[in-house]
Design brief:
This protein has helices at 14-18, 24-36, 44-68, 96-108, 113-126, 131-141, 147-158, 175-181, 202-213, 225-233, 236-251. The chain has 256 residues and is mainly alpha-helical. The protein has 2 domains: 14-68; 76-256, DNA Cyclobutane Dipyrimidine Photolyase, subunit A, domain 3, CATH 1.10.579.10. The longest helix has 25 residues, at 44-68. It is globular. It starts with 13 loop residues before the first helix and ends in a 5-residue tail after the last helix.
């Protein structure tokens, strides 16, 4: 993710495929033809990664939708009930990653996968927003968001509201991940390195608060063992301070 780039290496073909203007098979064949053309300089890892998103993940989402609906639309395994912040409709927030990802989404009706999952979706889950509200936002904002592909990615992969039907663990992270994956943190009001204090990135306190609040839910999830072990080792006073800040962010997110 880059402050000065909206699309980077993403093809932006999802709208055409999801609305059936362009056949996924046609896209895959074009990529294979390009790969086998000896005059091109494209390698197997690029081809595999691109095609896997279409015949792998995209079709998996379609299968989940037809298998699990209509009950899937009501799932809320983590019992999250908070409201969507107002800045989801304006992009006006001091958190640069959200300002960039949401602002772009509102401006061009598109954001690439990592912006949707690990910035916007991550914040939504950490602040425990009702998955109904998250679904409506994604479905209403993105040009490629047709329900069969939107709801399985959002309620399933992003918000873990399905309890693990789509993914085996929630996709949540602290600011450290966002800093590694973007240039956003270098131009932010907050410090990605701080966990406590007014300049500490909200993602840090929200992350540890989420793990603490949902500890019982994830106690038997082996993929969460390492993070839960780190949580258990955290000083009690420090965790209390982190949770106090997280509670304030969740209560008045538009102030941040």
């Amino acid at each position: 993710m880059h402050d000065d780039e909206k699309f980077l290496f993403h093809s932006r073909l999802s709208f055409a495929m999801n609305s059936k203007i362009l056949s996924p098979k046609e896209v895959i064949q074009a990529v294979l033809d390009h790969f086998y053309d000896k005059t091109t300089n494209i390698n197997i890892s690029q081809v595999e990664g691109f095609i896997r998103q279409i015949v792998g993940w995209r079709e998996y989402m379609r299968g989940i939708y037809w298998k699990e609906m209509p009950e899937y639309k009501q799932l809320n395994s983590l019992k999250n009930t908070n409201k969507l912040p107002d800045f989801f409709w304006s992009g006006k927030t001091k958190m640069n990653c959200l300002k960039k990802a949401i602002g772009q989404s509102l401006d061009v009706a598109y954001a690439h996968h990592i912006q949707r999952l690990m910035v916007i979706g991550n914040f939504s889950l950490l602040t425990q927003i009702d998955p109904d509200e998250v679904d409506k936002w994604y479905l209403g904002v993105y040009i490629d968001a047709i329900e069969w592909v939107e709801i399985t990615n959002t309620r399933g992969m992003s918000q873990f509201a399905d309890g693990g039907i789509v993914a085996t663990k929630p996709y949540v992270s602290s600011a450290n991940y966002i800093n590694k994956m973007s240039t956003y943190c270098g131009n932010c009001h907050y410090s990605h390195a701080q966990k406590i204090g007014e300049k500490a990135c909200p993602f840090n306190s929200l992350y540890w608060n989420f793990l603490a609040e949902k500890k019982e839910h994830f106690k038997d999830n082996q993929r969460m063992n390492m993070m839960m072990a780190l949580l258990d080792k955290m000083d009690g006073n420090k965790l209390a301070e982190i949770q106090e800040r997280a509670a304030l962010i969740i209560k008045i997110p538009d102030d941040f």
